[in-house]
Write a structure and sequence with these properties.
By secondary structure, the chain is mainly α. It contains 28 helices and two strands.
């Protein structure tokens, strides 16, 4: 006699299900080959188990036990088709072997197929509680799983099938005259409790389904650009149920951010964090809002929280690196971008692109070029990073090469104001004043705000105590927008004073 639990233990089903399966015992003739194969199983050498069993089948092709064990080995080797072939053969050879039906249950990850197999087993062995226990366990687990992602109709369907099966099970139990084992009594108690609460559970799932539909409608409005209407629908969804509140607050936070309503965005992201404090992405999203508000310290704290919760979140390192960069702490920024590159997720290209920019600002031009090429290799559509190539040449005084690079960027996008800015300074340095002036006018026409962006770069250099570069970029900004000379007069005087003190 041998007890069955091999595949069940591997997959870790509920204890009550295991308890029921454990009472199934199957008459089995063990020969030396079978025992040798079992030893290979114990050593996890499944290929060798298959090899000796298949050899044995050439002399005894109708040995159902061999087919079962081969099917189990193939399943563990993730060769599902081969496993199914041998299990089906075992069922044909020995249709009264309950173990074979259990083995077939675990050959597929498709829940509907699993349940069909269990129903066949229940039909064949209507008085065997182990099959009911497994069916109850998996129906409930999948109902919970589907409900958690908004598939409430499917979840309710599984619960109704659970109810029908449970009612049939109790009819079978009531027809038995022998005393009930402790395991069966426990199964009965758990099943009755589930049936008693099922009405409330189904009603709750229906409410959750309504909330999920309202969330989807809000997202549809958001995707159409109707942001204010989307906000209203998120609020409506919140009032229906609470199953998906964390998702709703998360989506709503992004919409508030798009609208520039940073305070509300912070509020709803914080609510989402209260509900699911272990979700690292929520801290990252809230940090981005802090960053948009200019609160670098709070942004840093949230990015740090995201990293603590999920050390493999490459984006959190990239954003924290951007905080370091904005504080002029270029060495720490490089470390974070390098960590994101090491993680090597789908955002590694952004880590390379941002690190290339920091390298350029530190006059590490060769390192910058390597990173630019890597970013472009990983994501060819990320052409913005290629701007750094022209800027490197500009910083190196290689004006012809710089102009050629800026021409490429302008050919890619005739409205790329930053490329005109770069070409303007390259042409001016080269002495082509007339064409440089044309580019300057184009910049002013497309986006005179480029000047303020350059001021921010100047401030970064000041934070990094690179005062000479800071003054250089302030002069660049004033060339684009002369009105900034008055606006930043005091700031420029401070920079000049710092430069004089450093000499």
């Amino acid at each position: 006699m041998r007890k069955i639990a091999l595949l069940l233990i591997i997959l870790g089903v509920s204890q009550i299900a295991l308890a029921q399966v454990d009472v199934l015992e199957v008459e089995e003739v063990k020969d030396a080959i079978y025992e040798e194969a079992e030893n290979y199983f114990d050593d996890e050498e499944y290929e060798k188990a298959v090899e000796i069993l298949k050899t044995a089948l050439t002399e005894n092709e109708n040995n159902a036990s061999y087919h079962v064990l081969i099917g189990g080995a193939y399943s563990l080797l993730d060769k599902k088709d081969e496993a199914k072939e041998h299990i089906e053969r075992a069922i044909t050879l020995n249709p009264d072997d309950m173990e074979v039906y259990l083995s077939r249950f675990f050959l597929t990850d498709d829940f509907e197929e699993q349940m069909d197999g269990l129903k066949q087993a229940i039909k064949k062995f209507p008085r065997e509680p182990a099959f009911y226990a497994l069916a109850f366990t998996f129906y409930k687990a999948n109902a919970i799983s589907e409900g958690s992602i908004g598939n409430t109709d499917i979840a309710i369907k599984y619960l109704e099938e659970y109810r029908s099966l449970a009612e049939n099970y109790f009819k079978v139990i009531e027809s038995q005259s022998e005393p009930l084992s402790e395991e069966i009594q426990l199964l009965n108690s758990m099943t009755k409790e589930s049936l008693e609460t099922m009405g409330a559970w189904v009603a709750r799932l229906k409410k959750d389904g309504e909330q999920f539909k309202a969330l989807n409608e809000a997202n549809r409005l958001r995707d159409k650009g109707e942001l204010e209407e989307a906000i209203k629908h998120y609020d409506m969804a919140i009032n229906i149920s609470d199953a998906f509140d964390h998702w709703i607050y998360n989506h709503q936070g992004h919409v508030y951010k798009q609208l520039g309503n940073f305070d509300q965005a912070l509020l709803v992201f914080s609510k989402a964090i209260e509900i699911t404090p272990q979700d690292a992405s929520l801290y990252r999203h809230r940090a981005q809002v802090h960053l948009a508000k200019g609160n670098e310290q709070k942004a840093f704290e949230d990015f740090q929280a995201a990293i603590d919760l999920d050390p493999k979140d490459g984006r959190a390192y990239i954003y924290r690196g951007l905080v370091y960069k904005s504080l002029g702490q270029f060495d720490k920024a490089i470390l974070d971008f390098s960590k994101a590159i090491e993680i090597n997720d789908e955002y590694a290209y952004a880590a390379y692109g941002n690190r290339s920019e920091v390298y350029r600002r530190l006059d590490k031009f060769e390192e910058s070029k390597v990173d630019i090429n890597k970013a472009f290799e990983l994501k060819p559509e990320a052409v913005d990073y290629l701007m750094n190539v022209g800027l490197i040449y500009l910083d190196q005084g290689k004006f012809e090469e710089a102009i050629a690079e800026f021409n490429k960027r302008i050919n890619d996008d005739l409205h790329f104001a930053s490329a005109y800015v770069g070409r303007y300074f390259a042409l001016k340095a080269k002495g082509d004043i007339s064409q440089a002036q044309d580019d300057l006018e184009k910049v002013r026409e497309l986006d005179i705000g480029q000047a303020e962006y350059i001021v921010e770069i100047a401030k970064l250099f000041e934070k990094a105590n690179m005062i000479h570069k800071s003054l250089k970029y302030m002069n660049y900004a004033i060339e684009i927008n002369p009105e900034l000379e008055v606006k930043y007069e005091d700031y420029i005087d401070v920079l000049k004073s710092k430069l004089a003190d450093s000499k």
